[in-house]
């Protein structure tokens, strides 16, 4: 834990009257939870401070967490402190007005492909950025205030980014931070129901995935969700992309990925890459992407490039299997 930088972040927050919070494009539970959770903690602790979180694009499955602030004039940004959560590179910051802020802080748990900001707090081994915000609260709890709404935002990101505390980033610190939030008060029955109940039709789509999924020679499971399939099941891009977890439990497949035809004019195919034991981020980085060691995103622009990525992933997995044991 980097106590020195955490203390500097607290000082900066205390110093500024206005704070703008930023997160990443294609938002997920962690960046939404961390941004809303941090905003709530600051507002509860210093009600007189102005805190804005401006992003009009909340993912549909997270809308239950509530809307963000309306856009404001550029001048509002200029004397403010900016805090970007859960975002490895500047290109992925959703609200581009972060450049207007007087000073910028980066709080993140991704592998830092590039750094930005005047103060940087990155802890790659954290299971989520929400865990970092919860640890931040815990560290300065004699000064900071939290309530069950803020705790629920943070708990949402911890649950979603750790796969319900299943992924390998989960450790004692993760559970201690989660315990702090539960002590504050999180209605986990309602939260889990909001996050994980699935529509009958969506389960039919999953059945189709199991029917069509393929495996490369050395055990990379994959599926290409083309436009026809998206139309057949009446899926938004986001719903189609959510199917990556469907392939996560095939014995012998230590990596799995989904390719989603975005239908844009550039022919982009969104790739979501996942793995256990073997790392997969180097493959993502080769194809306009990045992320975590075992959960990354990328983009390819043709079926040929998709095949190329699969070949690279297959060779990578082959090499891993040849040099390791007990990968199941
Ligand atoms: P996704 O499959 O899109 O949820 O991505 C998995 C993880 O990789 C998330 O933490 C994303 O923030 C990150 N990620 C996705 N795409 C990129 C990218 N192009 N560059 C860097 N990180 C990415």
For the record, the CATH class of the largest domain is Alpha Beta
Spatial gap, N to C terminus: 33 Å
CATH architectural type of the largest domain: Alpha-Beta Complex
Question: Hetero groups bound?
Answer: adenosine monophosphate
Radius of gyration: 20 Å
Give the neighbour order of strands across the main sheet: 6-7-8-9-11-10
Structural class designation: alpha/beta
- Separate helix tally: 12
Main pleated sheet: 6 strands, mixed
Describe what is shown at a glance.
The chain is of the alpha/beta class and 328 residues long. It is 41% helix and 16% strand.
Considering the chains and any ligands shown, give keywords for the structure.
328 residues; alpha/beta; inorganic pyrophosphatase (n-terminal core); Diaminopimelate Epimerase, Chain A, domain 1; five-stranded parallel sheet; 11 strands; 41% helix; globular; binds adenosine monophosphate
Describe this protein's structure:
There is one protein chain. With 328 residues, this protein is of the alpha/beta class. The chain folds into 2 domains: 3-195, Alpha-Beta Complex (inorganic pyrophosphatase (n-terminal core)), CATH 3.90.1640.10; 203-323, Roll (Diaminopimelate Epimerase, Chain A, domain 1), CATH 3.10.310. It has 12 helices and 11 strands. The chain has helices at residues 3-15, 29-45, 74-78, 129-139, 148-161, 172-184, 188-196, 200-212, 227-232, 237-241, 281-286, 303-323, and strands at residues 18-22, 50-53, 81-85, 103-108, 119-122, 214-215, 220-225, 255-261, 269-275, 290-291, 295-300. The strands form 2 sheets. A 6-stranded mixed beta sheet has the order 6-7-8-9-11-10. A 5-stranded parallel beta sheet has the order 2-1-3-4-5. A hairpin with a 7-residue loop joins strand 8 (255-261) and strand 9 (269-275). Helix 4 packs across helix 5 (148-161). The longest helix has 21 residues, at 303-323. It is globular. The two termini are 33 Å apart. Bound molecules: adenosine monophosphate. Residues 24, 26, 28, 88, 110, 272, 289-292, 295-297 line the site of adenosine monophosphate.
């Amino acid at each position: 834990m980097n106590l020195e930088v955490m203390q500097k972040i607290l000082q900066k927050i205390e110093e500024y009257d206005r704070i703008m919070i930023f997160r990443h494009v294609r938002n997920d539970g962690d960046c939404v939870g961390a941004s809303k959770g941090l905003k709530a903690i600051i507002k509860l602790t210093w009600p007189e401070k102005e805190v804005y979180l401006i992003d009009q694009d909340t993912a549909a499955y997270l809308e239950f967490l509530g809307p963000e602030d309306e856009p404001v004039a550029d001048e509002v940004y200029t004397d403010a402190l900016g805090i970007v959560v859960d975002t490895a590179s500047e290109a992925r910051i959703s609200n581009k007005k972060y450049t207007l802020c007087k000073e910028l802080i980066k709080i993140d748990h991704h592998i830092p492909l590039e750094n930005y900001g005047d103060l940087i707090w990155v802890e790659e081994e954290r299971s989520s950025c929400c865990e970092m915000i919860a640890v931040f609260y815990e560290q300065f709890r004699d000064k900071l205030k939290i309530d069950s709404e803020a705790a629920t935002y943070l708990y949402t990101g911890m649950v979603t980014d750790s796969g319900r505390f299943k992924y390998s980033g989960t450790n004692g610190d993760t559970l201690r931070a989660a315990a702090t939030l539960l002590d504050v008060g999180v209605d986990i029955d309602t939260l889990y129901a909001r996050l994980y109940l699935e529509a009958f039709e969506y389960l039919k789509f999953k059945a189709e995935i199991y029917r069509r999924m393929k495996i490369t020679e050395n055990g990379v499971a994959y599926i290409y969700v083309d436009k026809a399939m998206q139309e057949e099941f009446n899926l938004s891009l986001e719903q189609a992309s959510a199917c990556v977890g469907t392939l996560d439990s095939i014995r012998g497949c230590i990596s799995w990925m989904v390719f989603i035809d975005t239908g844009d004019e550039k022919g982009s195919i969104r790739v979501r890459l996942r793995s256990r034991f073997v790392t997969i981020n180097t493959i993502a980085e080769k194809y306009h992407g990045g992320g975590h060691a075992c959960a990354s995103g990328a983009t390819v622009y043709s079926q040929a490039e998709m095949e190329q990525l699969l070949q690279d992933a297959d060779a990578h997995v082959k090499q891993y299997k040849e040099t390791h044991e007990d990968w199941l």
